[in-house]
Automatic annotation (TrEMBL):
Domain of life assignment: Bacteria
UniProt-listed SMART domains: AAA
Gene Ontology cellular-component annotations: plasma membrane
Every ABC transmembrane type-1 domain range: 30-317
Domain ABC transporter: start-end pairs: 351-585
Chief place where the protein resides: membrane
Annotated protein name in UniProt: ABC transporter ATP-binding protein
Keywords: ATP-binding, Membrane, Nucleotide-binding, Transmembrane, Transmembrane helix, Transport
InterPro entries (alphabetical): AAA+_ATPase (IPR003593), ABC1_TM_dom (IPR011527), ABC1_TM_sf (IPR036640), ABC_transporter-like_ATP-bd (IPR003439), ABC_transporter-like_CS (IPR017871), P-loop_NTPase (IPR027417), Type_1_exporter (IPR039421)
Topology versus the membrane: Multi-pass membrane protein
Protein species of origin: Candidatus Uhrbacteria bacterium CG_4_9_14_3_um_filter_50_9
Amino acid sequence: MRRTTHHIHTKEILQVYWKHMRPYLWVVCIILALVVAAKSLDVVAPLFYKRFFDLLSGEIPAVSEELPALLRGTILIVLILHLFNWIAWRLFALFSNWFQPRVMADLRQTAFSYLHHHSYRFFSNSFSGSLVRRVNRLADSFEALVDQMVFNIIPLFVIVVGNLIVLWTRSSMLALILLGWVVLYIVINVLFATWKTKYDFSRAELDSETTGVLADSLTNAVTVKLFTGHAFESGLFKNVTERLRRMHTFTWNIGEAMEAVQALLMTLIEFVIMYYAIGLWYEGVLTVGDFVLIQTYLMGLFMVLWNVGRAIRKLYEALANADEMIEILNTPHEVKDVRNAKELQVQTGRIEFQNVYFSFNKTRRILKDMNLVIKPKEKIALVGPSGAGKSTITKLLFRFFDVERGKILVGNQNIAKVTQDSLRENIALVPQEPILFHRTIMDNIRYGRRGATDEEVIEAAKRAHAHEFIEGLQEGYETFVGERGVKLSGGERQRVAIARAILKNAPILVLDEATSSLDSESEALIQEALEELMKDKTTIVIAHRLSTIMKMDRIIVIEDGKVTDSGTHKQLLKKKDNIYKKLWEIQAGGFIK
């Protein structure tokens, strides 16, 4: 998932955000109106401060007896303006607090749903920790983007326009000087933020890499202990965190340099404006109140401009952070349903591979002109050397990958033309290494049929011979199994997986080394459960255990991506110089005939 360019897909990011904002457009309009109103009041209030000081200095003639009342009236107006400003911001907060969390939740849901529809290959090539980080960043970046817009960008626009209009009425030259300076200031900040983007991008990428390394190491904590790899893992993590530290330090330093430039620009414009205003005052164009007005406007303008300098950089940072997830959202799903895909109707459970070709990459051909017919309710075993393509056959049956050529039929339906969900609903899998959710045992078994009752779950557990060990746990079926099921032994996880498959009761069953994690005693218990599970089901078994293979209706020998032989256990042993006989003799040691 490493990127090849530092280009940020700004248009695509904004399109995604707009799509999720559109259902709440009325709230967006209210929020914008409240922000504009509040900042407009900030432009109007200094006009009354000007009036106040002009009254004090005598620039506005007033009878001495009326002066206190005029001053108090002016201050009262200022108070009313500030109260309206306070009300506007409080209303803004209420609407914003309703709006932003909803859009953020929608964004997370969209990212979650789109991620889950990516292919088996996608998840094999991605760190789960990094994907989690990207989902959260998409929502967090939206929050950052909106906050910068409503607290900095929009206020800047209102303040600048309002200040320039008022100053123009006092002196067009003052307004033009300020306008030129604002344009220069913003251009410098935009150019700087654009230049800094590549470093923000690298920082975001390093942050994702750090999260991925951390998640990968913690997920394999037991392996680290077994191979005394703490020092090695610590070195890997130190390396990536050190690179992240250096990038943070560099980006913060250049940010500090830009702030120094901003402060210098503000000092210079204040000097220029006040210097020129003195001449206008001397000429009688400006009053003492105008100096208060100008200074108040400058301070207010400096405040929003100082924040806007950071806001522009924050905007780019937010876009860089969101871009990682947007890139995934713009990546087409490798395996997807065709238009008007039909539901799979399994009537007989017949499976057929017709001239199937498949490669994981250009240099690794797995299946070559593969042809295989599995009769309805037939139990077959796939055997062959490692890498022959046994597991690939089952992955293609689940349509985790699409075939390059040929087709796979279930019944009389091409699985490429039916919905993936309907296909997988009709196939149950008991994998070699079952991975469970960090949920209760009850939840994990019920995942086979999520509408099942507790009684049905318990019955499935009994048939899988899992009920005995579950009842022995302190919390029973409400026991949380830990991440990936680490609190259970391999055999216990396997029995939970078998119970889940029993509960699913799909017409097609795939057993991928389903008894490999069991000791002899557990295997004896499970074999009975598996035999019951396989009843009236089309079953594909990938196994090396002799007891499992011998009971199959037919054994299919796979070599170099093709079916090279088939028959019952006894039929294959009678043949000379075949791969099954060699594999059997290696495993049985010549003692079992």
